[in-house]
Amino acid sequence: MKIGIDKISFFVPKYYLTLEDLAVARQIDPMKYTRGLMQEKMAITPLNQDTISMAANAALNILTNEDIEKIDLVMFATETSVDHSKAAATNLISILGLKNQTRVIELKQACYAATAALNFAKGHILQNPDSKVLVVASDIARYGLKTDGEATQGAGSVAMIVSKDPKITVINQHAGFYSDDLYDFFRPSHMDYALVEGHYSNEMYKKFFNESYNDFLNKSNQTLDDLKAVTFHIPYVKIGLKTLSFLTNPDERLDLFENFKDATIYNKQIGNIYTGSLYLSLISLLEQGNLKDNEQIGLYSYGSGAIGEFFSMTTVEGYKHHLNKVHHEKMLNDRVNLSIDEYENIFNSIIKNDFIFDDEPHEEIILKQIKNYKRYYEKKNTWKCSFFILLWKRLKNLKNRVK
What we know:
Blueprint lengths: L2 E9 L3 E4 H7 L5 H4 L6 E4 L6 H10 L4 H6 E7 L10 H9 L6 E5 L5 H15 L4 E10 L12 E11 L4 E11 L5 E2 L8 E2 L1 H23 L8 E4 L4 H11 L6 H10 L1 H6 L6 H12 L7 E8 L3 E9 L9 H9 L2 E2 L2 H8 L7 E2 L8 E7 L2 E6 H23 L1
Parallel strand pairs: 2-14, 4-5, 4-6, 11-12
Antiparallel strand pairs: 1-7, 1-8, 2-3, 6-7, 8-13, 9-10, 12-13, 15-16, 16-17
Helix pairs in contact: 3-5, 9-11
């Protein structure tokens, strides 16, 4: 049975900050960010967006009534959860109108959890061939103002539907792993921002790639020649490029470097989105690249703490017809460029309780209110309906007064 990604999409919030503007404000040479990190912009979440609303918006791009009828498992991968107990996947039941006869779970292992979710989804489909699984990865990467990691922030979500006979990619059998107990990047539960050993974390990223990649080759009896592209977890683009250079060079495999460039177009525009980063890169490759049908892609997933996994997917015949390229490009182009002051005001305005957003939503789904620490979400069409009902009531009251 062939199992893999039947649909895939991403969501990014409406605001962004250019890294050139950030560099100027921090009195840093912009080349340190645009060339040193190979990043251009970072997505900024407004107050009415969180990891749950972003995940719901990404899922809305691909969900149909037929999908909802067949989905009986939802896995929500995040390392920026809004609740230590209640799984974010439970919120999606009401927001997306999913069946109550659905298993829901939240997964955490730094930036790796979405890859674990894909593996679990594949096993679920093997046991339940006629069902579908919704996998979402949603995060907000924040390191604090004027910190070393500030330029590698970002926000966004990726949604995938996993099923048999997929329309986009088949998840192949073999995977290589490597895990160890270390503290390269971590965030104790009482802290708002992660603690990062930057140089050490970069070295572990590369080490775990080598270990998991070699494990993959041993298990699959394949070589680099079998792969037409290699995608990476992208905290920033430059580290992926450096890691690819360990495998080969442009003189030997120019196609891998050209495909890497295509695979990081979206990442450059959005920044680090943690659990969704690898799959944002996959979307970029599929939509912006020139891969043919039935070609194999290598994927490297890394989660600090730490685990690395290297596995592969194969494109399905006609996969290009099932992508959301036009929607994604429009979403990126329609964003608003913030000034430094606007960015810092949003960054410093984190509200944890007793909050209501009264303006018209720009996105399909927003965080409408936090009351008694409970989160309430609203759909755009619901807002419009409520607005017209309110207007009708006011006009009716005015008419009665005139009488």
